[in-house]
Amino acid sequence: MKRTTSKRLVTISDVAQSAGVSKATAARVLGSYGTASPVVKEKVREAARKLGYQANELARSMTTGKSKTIGVIVGDIENPYFGQAVRGISDAAHAAGFDVILSNSGEDAAKEKAAVRVLLGKRVDGLIVTPASVYETQHLHEVQRSGRPLVLLDRTVPGLAVDAVVTDDRQAAEAATRALIEAGHRRIAYISATESDDPIYRGPHQINLSTVMERIEGVVAASRSAGIEHPERYIRLGANRRGEGDKIISELLQGADRPTAILASDNVVALEVFKTLRRLGMSIPQDLSLIAFHDADWTSVTSPPITVIAQPVYDLGFESARILVRRITGIGDAPRCRVLATTLIKRQSIGAPPELPESRTVLQNTAAKIG
Amino acid sequence: MKRTTSKRLVTISDVAQSAGVSKATAARVLGSYGTASPVVKEKVREAARKLGYQANELARSMTTGKSKTIGVIVGDIENPYFGQAVRGISDAAHAAGFDVILSNSGEDAAKEKAAVRVLLGKRVDGLIVTPASVYETQHLHEVQRSGRPLVLLDRTVPGLAVDAVVTDDRQAAEAATRALIEAGHRRIAYISATESDDPIYRGPHQINLSTVMERIEGVVAASRSAGIEHPERYIRLGANRRGEGDKIISELLQGADRPTAILASDNVVALEVFKTLRRLGMSIPQDLSLIAFHDADWTSVTSPPITVIAQPVYDLGFESARILVRRITGIGDAPRCRVLATTLIKRQSIGAPPELPESRTVLQNTAAKIG
DNA sequence: ATCGTATTTGAGACCGGTCTCACATGTCAA
DNA sequence: TTGACATGTGAGACCGGTCTCAAATACGAT
Question: Which of A287, A319, B68, B346 is 20 to 30 A distant from B253 in Cα terms?
């Protein structure tokens, strides 16, 4: 019988009037605060039920100053990586009674900035962001200064003292590289999906994501300690855009002194490697060994199954939301950076390096090998 | 110099005072409504800039009654299918100046109901929902009655006259089944991930998703018109839970009179088929032909690449948000159900059915084959 | 019966915007 | 000069809740 006539919604005053009490009393009952006698409580609840009352959370938020909502800005929800993370965030948030407003930055710092403004305008209680750039971060500093809790997800921003939840990318890259070196590889490529005009890596200034930098450092460190010289020459960037990945990979594999192993920064890149290889008539692991970041389900059903670096993506999201909620609730200890462990899952995409014709640099390499 | 002291945020009154005008005038300038002289405009804007003013959208929404926010409830964001759809929604919404609040129902009607309450409480301007059940829909009817725009995504609810954007599942299933029949198959299984206590299909009462029902109808119709008797016997449900999928598939494939082809309701199920097959030492398409719903990237790199039914998932989301926005803006025509086309992408997972030992039902089947 | 204290209730301010309306001022034609 | 009308501005109500404060009532002890 609650024929809510699409006109105006039922307010607390309506309920109060119908129950024959004051607005304040009705609010106390319906808002579960203050005191009210059992008789009155029942009367009010009954009236509310009869009228189909539903609280206006906006009004509530305005007076209380809390919206019970957290804002989340990710690079791209379409990417299963973020999908899993968002699920983790969502689960943790809901468990704590918070809702989630989601925004997409498309890995664009300007859009990210706009999204921050909007979410702040909506008075979210806190923010979780995967910063699109380590350079353009004024807006994040502003959030911090405004005192609203902020948690960085998956990536850090140097000089910004807020909580962060990340995986140990440096170590993961190092372990993966070491695994390839142990299989006999000396020419190891790292192909990243990170935005870049120039596909050739020329130095840290090109990199605007902390994760990417860490991985590069990991690859280089492992290579160096195995005596491999100038490992940076096999690093490629910007393999994200459609078509670009194939170009980068095929040029790399057809060039002189080609790499015998590839470390792919994510699933999409790994997929590109697969496709390019098929087109080139090469196969894994005979002609090329492969390790990919992110243990997507499908990586175990390809032929051969791909060796991957498994990242606890769901946990990354869950943990970041948990931390954010604690901050909102008012835990005031110093911000920390939680580093979650990754696992190298060895499958069958690593083999011995193929015999390749001698090349200009081989002498140096073999010489170094002894050291 | 906008040292926003984390205490209280700057309000429009603060700006008005600083600019030496009334609150009403400042609001007119900052809210872009009404009139104000150029001089005053500049003064107010300058004051706002100086103080770092940012509008409280909550307060704004409360008076205007519009929140410029749409609520989205999907089954599972972790699922790339919904990830893509959400991206489409998000893009269309932002383009029209709307934000998105996301909720997860986990395909549970009760949770969906709760999510609807919450979003309505937050006074979203409209809702996009992938209904978890065709039976428990009171909450959706209530949304409709309340007059707030509602768009159904991917699935319909019979008897609920609201806009919907779906793919033509019946036809897709029919086309896929026909492709298998043309390759010579007569024993075609449909394995669905839909929730069910009993993995064996016994009738429509078990099904609570419109898409699932349509697909079953498609499979059955195509089979029937090819003279295949009792095609329902190869339909299995509930392959979603971990472990359950493998069990269902292996029982099906090891049973007497086993199917020679499988139509998988989504990627996850297709993946399960792959894994189970590997465990059983069977291969595609020699021992079994496979078609899967949803053209995920990876389906093209398995060995063999999988024939899939490509669904325009992003468009599904984009279109639903576009329609919702139009409704919010006040287009009052009768609700419609948009049906987007699917494409059968033939790859290499379909082959001729293997020679199988005669079984109890073969006689009927071969007899029927002639018709 | 009387007082002190605890509990219940209502009136009304408040949150930060929007919006209506009345008033002040400016412009132009008669 | 005066009146008609457009334009700019301010005062204050309002949205729907919460919350403070004071008044009203109930209860127990003396």
Answer: B346
Answer yes or no: is B275 within a domain: yes
Task: Render pLDDT for B209-228 as a digit per residue (tens, 0 to 9).
Answer: 999 999 999 999 999 999 99
Residue A6 reports pLDDT greater than 80:
no
Distance A176 CA to C1 C1' (A): 90
Task: Look at residue B5 and tell me if it is in a domain.
Answer: no
Domain total of chain B: 3
Distance of alpha carbon A294 from alpha carbon A310, whole angstroms: 5
B306 close to B272: Cβ distance less than 8 angstroms: no
Q: With a 7 Å cutoff on the CB, does A22 touch strand D?
A: no
Q: Which of A78, A121, A303 sits opposite B83 (nearest CB)?
A: A78
Cβ of A27 near strand D (under 7 Å)? The reply is yes
- Residue A145, helix vs strand vs coil: helix
Asked if A351 and A245 sit in the same domain, the reply is yes
**Between A352 and A360, residue with greater pLDDT:** A352
**Residue B23 CA, nucleotide D6 C1', distance (Å):** 23
What confidence tens digit (pLDDT) does each residue in A200-209 have?
Answer: 999 999 999 9
Residue B36's pLDDT is what?
94
Contact A4 B142 (CB under 8 A): yes
Domain-located, residue A60: no
Measured between beta carbons, the chain B residues lying within 8 angstroms of A3 are 145
What CATH number does residue A226 fall under? Answer: 3.40.50.2300
- Asked if residue A207 is part of any domain, the answer here is yes
B160 and B180, same domain (yes or no): no
Q: Which residues contact B251 (CB under 8 A, 6 or more apart)?
A: none
Classify residue B338 by burial, with Cβ atoms within 10 Å: 0-12, 13-18, 19+.
middle
Q: What is the pLDDT of residues A107-148, one digit of tens each?
A: 999 999 999 999 999 999 999 999 999 999 999 999 999 889
Same domain? For B319 and B361 the reply is no
Q: Which domain holds residue B34?
A: 12-55
